[in-house]
Design brief:
heterodimer; A: mainly alpha; Ammonium transporter fold; two-stranded antiparallel sheet; 14 helices; 2 strands; B: alpha+beta; Alpha-Beta Plaits; four-stranded antiparallel sheet; 20% helix; elongated
């Protein structure tokens, strides 16, 4: 039976999550790169949204969410390819299946879009398209199926409310591998590569905070108390992430920055994502504070110590945050710590073990497959632009456009 | 004729413009530039990536004046632009061989 309240909320939540990518993430990432590359980032976000949407309709939704028969533990089947059989009357739970498919699509869009941050300012557009499409098919869809489509992790009652593993660990680990395979930007780290438009980046970040209510509270797939608590937990963690990162930065570097506070927000949001429907506000507060702190130090470590050019810090924020959040779900989801209580009355230790299995599986699958897919893509075309092209900027070289024509 | 080029701190631009007006110079060209002499730069920090930025924003004011105005113009600019702190800038005076008003074709001092 369709519940109109649930349906109305999910229709809205779907719009919110797409808004997170377009233009939330687009502006956030766009503002952080140099002006000569701003359009390349916007283009990548839009292109991924378009291509993923088509792939989703053709086969993606089916592979993630339909019954795979004998392969059901690993991947779905093609019974719903081209969304066959889905009509205006089809139902998933208490909402139309069309709405469910749309809502899930917005997650499938933002996950490869997140990875873009790792190879910003140097990857060829064609290579990015090929890689992202393959990555969606062979990394995102399987993991989504394992966790949400009735696959082996779902069967183990691995908890991931809104995508700690499916979205954040997946994208974060892929970003780290991509940054390592594609290599540093020319001039990194000695040459200054400062964000060209922080007001745009902060605008995008604001859209992410608001949109995340659709991401997490929408994942309740209902307009009910679970959605309400998920929104509360999400918001609390975002705020705590802001404060924690700001404090760390103030202590460590002497001044709090606006880039820092919004990054802390993203860290808090990414980390609470898997836990959002399972923990209470107290747990969310702790998770957010940990996110702002741990992800801050992870960013310093990856950037300054390991000198890896994960240009927009996707791994230390989403990867580390996603891993931490997925594990902490096993802790703060427990009734004793204000959560809703673990499945089958499991102890914290027992649920934590399941969370760890899911985390490791996602890390290994995403990391290994990302490496492989980049190598496969490189057989078809160069992954990187040339040194001269990189210097001139991707906007002119790849798109023959200029982001800002201020003098005219 | 001389071309007087003054590199000044941007926030002194209005004062310099007014001071020039008072000595009878009402035309000028202003460009936003960056540079440094003895003034130290600053550091910028973006998610832990720290950069020392040597270049400081400055304004470049160029005025073409007849020889008899040169001393008064230098004095006007200097007084208006000086703060007493490092980074106040510099004035360069170069010979101007030719000048022409495009609209009327007037040359020399009549073009200034």
């Amino acid at each position: 039976m369709i519940n109109s309240g649930d349906t109305a909320w999910l229709l809205g939540a779907t719009a919110l999550v797409l808004f997170m990518t377009l233009p939330g993430l687009a502006l956030f990432y766009g503002g952080l790169v140099r002006s000569r590359n701003v359009l390349s980032v916007l283009m990548q976000c839009f292109a991924i949204a378009a291509v993923v949407s088509i792939v989703w309709v053709l086969a993606g939704y089916s592979l993630a969410f339909s019954d795979g028969g004998s392969a059901q533990a690993w991947i779905g089947g093609l019974s719903k390819a081209l969304l066959a059989g889905i009509t205006a009357d089809s139902i998933t739970g208490t909402i139309p299946e069309s709405v469910f498919a749309m809502f899930q699509l917005t997650f499938a869009i933002i996950t490869p879009a997140l990875v873009v941050g790792a190879f910003a300012e140097r990857m060829r557009f064609a290579a990015m398209l090929i890689f992202s499409t393959l990555w969606l098919l062979l990394v995102y869809l399987p993991v989504a199926h394992w966790v949400w489509g009735g696959g082996w992790l779902a069967q183990m009652k691995f908890l991931d409310f809104a995508g700690g593993s499916v979205v954040h660990i997946n994208a974060g680990v892929a970003a780290l591998v991509a940054a390592l395979v594609i290599g540093k930007r020319r001039g990194f780290p000695s040459q200054a590569m400062t964000p060209h438009n922080l007001p745009a980046a902060v605008t995008g970040a604001g859209m992410l905070w608001v949109g995340w209510f659709g991401f997490n509270a929408g994942s309740a797939l209902a307009a009910n108390g679970s959605a309400g608590m998920a929104m509360l937990a999400t918001h609390t963690a975002a705020a705590a992430g802001c404060v924690a990162w700001m404090a760390q930065e103030w202590l460590r570097f002497g001044k709090p920055s606006v880039l820092g506070i919004v990054t802390g927000m993203v860290a808090g949001l990414g980390t609470i994502t898997p836990a959002s429907g399972y923990v209470g506000p107290g747990g969310a507060l702790v998770i957010g504070l940990l996110a702002g702190t741990v992800c801050f130090w992870a960013t310093q470590y990856v950037k300054r110590r390991l000198v890896i050019d994960d240009s927009l810090d996707v791994f230390p924020v989403h990867g580390v945050g996603g891993i931490m959040g997925t594990l902490l779900t096993g802790v703060f989801g427990a009734a004793a710590l204000g959560g809703i209580g673990h499945p089958d009355g499991r102890t914290i230790a027992a649920q934590l073990a399941v969370q760890l299995i899911g985390t490791v599986a996602t890390v290994v699958w995403s990391g290994g497959m990302t490496w492989l897919l980049l190598k496969v893509t490189a057989l078809v075309c160069d992954l990187r632009v040339t040194a001269e092209e990189e210097n001139e900027g991707l906007d002119l070289v790849l798109h023959e456009e200029r982001g800002y024509n201020i003098t005219s | 004729m001389k071309l007087i080029t003054a590199i000044i701190k941007p926030f002194r631009l209005d004062d310099v413009r007014n001071a020039l007006s008072e000595v009878g110079v009402n035309g000028m060209t202003v460009t936003e530039v960056k540079g440094f002499g003895r003034q130290r730069g600053h550091t910028e920090l973006y998610r832990g990536a720290e950069y020392v930025v040597d270049f400081l924003p400055k304004s470049k004011v160029e005025v073409a004046v007849s020889d008899d105005l040169v001393e008064r113009v230098i004095e006007a600019i200097t007084t208006a632009a000086r703060t007493g702190k490092v980074g106040d800038g510099k004035i360069f005076v170069t010979d101007l061989h030719q000048s022409l008003r495009i609209r009327t074709g007037e040359t020399g001092d009549n073009a200034l």
